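User: Can you recover a sequence for this backbone? Please restate the input before giving your answer.

Assistant: Of course. Working from this structure:
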C-alpha cells in the first residue's frame, strides 16, 4: 500500500486475523441489547440484521472464533457496507468500542480478499507529501472554473462513482460571496451577549448542562442527540472576550495545527482561517513541517499497518515541536489522533508516547470553548449546522461548535433535523457506495432544504464534500462551509485578522 517504514507492531509477525482475535475482550462486550439498531443508518435503510452494529459484531466474533471463513462473501459485504459513523457507540450501554473493532475487521478482509483498485489509488494519493501534493493539485485543477461541477452534472447516473467524485471536488470550492460581503439579504443585527467564557454542554451527562464536552473514552452513558427532536441548537450565547487586552492577559499558548492531507490540499483556506482565529485568541502557532496524514482513511479502509506508521510519523514530528496543544479542525482526523494511544497500545516502544501525544490533541472548537473566544463583527447569515459523526459520536463534542457559532453577532442558527445522523460520506464511502451513500445524503439534503438556511456548516472535509456534492447534483448553489470560516470572516470585518 505504501513505502512507509515498518514498525514493530504485533500484526507484522502474525496474520491479519490475529489482529481481530486479539480483541476478544472488546468483542465480548456486546450484549446484543439492540439499542444500536435505530441509531444505525444502514440498518434503518436496509432492514438487515447483518447490516446492524450487533449483527456485524456477531460476524466478527464468528470469524475470530473460526466459525466463519475470513474471506467469506457475507463477512466482506456486511462489514464493507458499514459507514463507520459510530452512532452505535453513543447509545451503547455496554461501551462497545465498535469503531476500533471495525478497523480490525476490515484489516482481515483486506488481507484475505485484497483492496479495490479505487481504494488503493485514493490511499496512495495521501501516503506521503509528494503524492498528496500531486493528487490535490489535480483536484484543484478540475475544480477551477466550475469544470468539476459541469462534468458531474453531465455524467450519466450509471457512472455513479465518477459522478459522485466530480461533485465532491466541486463542493470544495470557496464561497467567494462571503469575503465580498454579498451574502444575500442581511438579517437584522443583534447585540452579542458577553458575560464571560463560553461554556460547553456535554451530551451524555444528563442533569449537568454546564459540564464540558466529554471525550468518548471516558463516557459511555446514554446520549440524547441535540437536534433529533427539532429543537433549536442554540449555544449558551455566553462567552466571548471582547477586547484585545483580555486575550493579552491570558497565557500565550504554543500550539500546532494539523494541516492534514485532504484539508491542506483542497481546503487550505480552512487551515489559514484556523491559524488566524487562533492568533486572534492569543496563541503562538508553531509550524510542524514533518507532519503528515493522520492515518484515518487508511485505518477505515483496512490498511491498519500503514495507518500506524503514519501515526508514528506524526508523533515524532509533533513531539519535536515542543507544543502544548495540537489543534485539529477536521473531525475524522481529531478522532483518530485522540485514539493513537489505543491504536498503538500493543506496541511497547510507542504505547506511552502515543498516549502522551493523544492527551495534547484538541478539536478546534473544543479548544476555543475551553480558552474563551473573542467576539467579532456582525455576520448576518441564516446558518444550519450538521454534526460530523467523528466529532459528535467518536469525540463526544456536541455543543462546542454550536456555542462558537452562537457567539457571532447577527448570525441566526437554525436547527437541522437529525443533525447527528451520518451524511453518507464516511471517508471514501460516498465514492465506493454511491447508491447507498446517495440514499443517506438525500435524506440529509431534504432536511437542509426544510431549514431555509443560506449556508450549511460542518467541521469535517469529508462531510463538506458529501453534502456539497449532493447539493451540486441537485443544482442547489447553497454553500457548505467549515464553521471556522464564519468566525474568521467575523473577525476580518472587525479588523482582527492580523493580530
Amino acid at each position: 500500500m505504501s513505502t512507509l517504514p515498518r514498525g514493530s507492531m504485533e500484526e507484522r509477525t502474525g496474520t491479519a486475523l490475529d489482529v481481530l482475535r486479539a480483541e476478544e475482550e472488546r468483542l465480548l462486550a456486546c450484549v446484543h441489547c439492540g439499542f444500536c439498531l435505530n441509531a444505525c443508518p444502514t440498518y434503518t435503510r436496509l432492514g438487515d440484521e447483518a447490516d446492524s452494529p450487533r449483527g456485524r459484531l456477531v460476524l466478527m466474533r464468528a470469524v475470530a472464533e473460526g466459525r466463519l471463513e475470513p474471506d467469506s462473501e457475507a463477512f466482506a459485504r456486511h462489514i464493507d457496507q458499514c459507514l463507520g459513523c459510530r452512532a452505535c457507540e453513543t447509545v451503547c450501554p455496554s461501551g462497545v468500542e465498535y469503531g476500533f473493532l471495525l478497523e480490525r475487521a476490515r484489516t482481515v478482509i483486506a488481507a484475505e480478499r485484497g483492496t479495490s483498485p479505487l481504494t488503493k489509488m485514493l490511499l496512495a494519493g495521501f501516503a506521503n507529501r509528494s503524492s498528496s501534493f500531486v493528487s490535490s493539485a489535480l483536484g484543484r485543477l478540475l475544480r477551477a472554473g466550475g469544470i468539476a461541477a459541469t462534468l458531474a452534472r453531465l455524467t450519466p447516473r450509471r457512472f455513479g462513482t465518477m459522478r459522485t467524485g466530480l461533485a465532491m471536488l466541486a463542493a470544495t470550492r470557496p464561497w467567494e460571496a462571503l469575503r465580498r460581503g454579498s451574502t444575500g439579504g442581511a438579517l437584522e443585527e443583534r447585540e452579542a451577549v458577553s458575560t464571560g467564557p463560553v461554556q460547553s454542554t456535554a451530551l451524555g451527562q444528563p442533569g449537568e448542562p454546564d459540564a464540558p464536552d466529554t471525550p468518548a473514552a471516558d463516557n459511555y452513558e446514554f446520549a440524547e442527540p441535540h437536534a433529533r427532536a427539532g429543537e433549536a441548537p442554540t449555544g449558551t450565547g455566553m462567552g466571548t472576550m471582547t477586547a484585545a487586552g483580555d486575550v493579552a492577559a491570558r497565557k500565550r499558548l504554543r500550539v500546532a495545527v494539523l494541516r492534514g492531507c485532504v484539508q491542506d490540499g483542497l481546503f487550505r483556506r480552512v487551515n489559514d482561517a484556523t491559524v488566524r482565529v487562533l492568533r486572534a485568541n492569543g496563541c503562538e502557532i508553531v509550524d510542524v513541517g514533518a507532519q503528515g496524514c493522520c492515518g484515518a482513511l487508511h485505518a477505515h479502509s483496512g490498511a491498519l499497518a500503514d495507518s500506524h506508521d503514519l501515526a508514528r510519523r506524526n508523533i515524532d514530528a509533533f513531539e519535536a515541536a515542543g507544543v502544548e496543544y495540537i489543534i485539529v479542525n477536521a473531525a475524522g482526523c481529531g478522532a483518530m489522533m485522540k485514539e493513537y494511544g489505543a491504536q498503538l497500545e500493543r506496541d511497547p516502544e510507542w504505547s506511552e508516547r502515543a498516549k502522551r501525544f493523544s492527551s495534547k490533541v484538541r478539536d478546534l472548537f473544543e479548544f476555543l470553548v475551553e480558552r474563551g473566544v473573542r467576539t467579532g463583527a456582525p455576520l448576518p447569515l441564516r446558518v444550519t449546522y450538521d454534526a460530523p459523526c467523528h466529532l459528535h459520536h467518536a469525540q463526544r463534542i456536541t455543543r462546542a461548535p454550536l456555542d462558537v457559532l452562537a457567539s457571532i453577532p447577527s448570525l441566526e442558527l437554525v436547527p437541522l433535523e437529525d443533525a447527528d445522523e451520518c451524511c453518507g460520506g464516511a471517508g471514501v464511502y460516498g465514492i465506493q457506495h454511491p447508491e447507498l451513500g446517495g440514499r443517506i445524503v438525500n435524506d440529509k439534503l431534504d432536511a437542509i432544504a426544510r431549514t431555509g438556511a443560506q449556508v450549511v456548516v460542518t467541521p469535517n472535509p469529508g462531510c463538506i464534500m458529501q453534502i456539497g456534492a449532493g447539493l451540486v447534483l441537485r443544482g442547489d448553489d447553497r454553500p457548505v462551509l467549515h464553521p471556522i470560516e464564519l468566525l474568521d470572516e467575523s473577525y476580518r470585518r472587525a479588523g482582527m485578522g492580523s493580530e
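That completes the design. The first strand starts at residue 240 and ends at 241.
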